[in-house]
């Protein structure tokens, strides 16, 4: 698909006509389009550009530092050269970007996987580096004579959004650095100076290694995994309980022991699985979260009452929390019970996702409060989590309840909420 013309330019062959409504599937592709749509003075020209791009009227796209170029054909086959300019990063900004990326190895791994996670962009912004364009940053030039974005430059931007979806290095090239230059800089900055490397002694002294081997015991063999968790001892007896002993409390302790054994078995199975050492360690659950996890195991009415009381929830609230937990674990529980103020880049990405999910005349009217978007005139709601995912909710008996798992696409989440209430999505 790609031809490298020289070290500082990439040329992409013309893409086929776009199928469906959405041009950008990734959040960074949608943010790119938002920069175009927010700054355009004439929205009719933006719509014309979207139609031209959808029809396959954009020719081969040339991407080089600070500029993208393509020939765009009108409906009457008249060809126009369209250019869109974006300010290149300075050498000092690139140095800060490389230093920032090296500090968090996940940034480099994400770029190599052709991904641009939100925290990479946020960390770059904190270092004074704006990777994604903002309002007014995409400067148009077209031989049709338009002084603002015309249908030709808008079509070029829509086509580039598809390229960005596939490879975020297209954005880095537009900002001034080729993929090879970025990776070389990461490798050079991440390596120790030559003098320091030369002064290091390779390996260890053989006598020291042999002596240590005599002192240290061999590593134990990994434990074997049983077919299932062990069963705690039974506390049931025909004898009457002594004074001061609560039988219901003992039954609850037996339930906790059983769940602990099941959780230990699950953790051991994950530990013995291949590749476990490369998995990230998740945060420890809070007491309130763990109470919901236990309640999701159907412990019985008495235990549910104890878990609800211990976590500060009524039986109805605990049932809702258990339902959310079964849909998505701790993340779904947090979205159910907590509100958080969406601001900065996260808010911009959320609005870009909402605006690009529907055509303008099909977009539902949404009322916003914190991370919750409620459809005006309908019992449907979208809730945004801190990972940028959307959760569908519906109103039942005066309360909002989750009705499905998370998705990156707000239109899909809203369709789930509508289907759950029997409405047309």
What shape does the CA trace take?
Answer: globular
Low-confidence stretches: 1-6
Radius of gyration: 29 Å
Would you tell me the overall average pLDDT? 81
Order of helices and strands: EEHHEEEHHHEHHHHHHHHHHEEEEEH
Which structural class should the secondary elements be placed in?
Answer: alpha+beta
Provide the spatial order of strands within the biggest beta sheet: 1-2-3-4-5-6
Number of helices: 16
Q: Strand portion, in percent? A: 5-15%
What do you see in this structure?
The chain has 425 residues and is an alpha+beta fold. The protein contains 16 helices and 11 strands. The chain has helices at 27-39, 43-54, 91-103, 105-112, 118-126, 151-166, 169-174, 179-190, 194-199, 206-215, 247-272, 287-295, 301-311, 315-337, 344-357, 410-420; strands spanning 2-6, 9-12, 61-64, 67-73, 79-85, 139-142, 366-369, 372-375, 380-384, 390-396, 399-402. Strands 1-2-3-4-5-6 form a 6-stranded antiparallel β-sheet. Strands 7-8-9-10-11 form a 5-stranded antiparallel β-sheet. The chain is globular, with a radius of gyration of 29 Å. The two termini are 36 Å apart. The model is unreliable at 1-6 (pLDDT under 50).
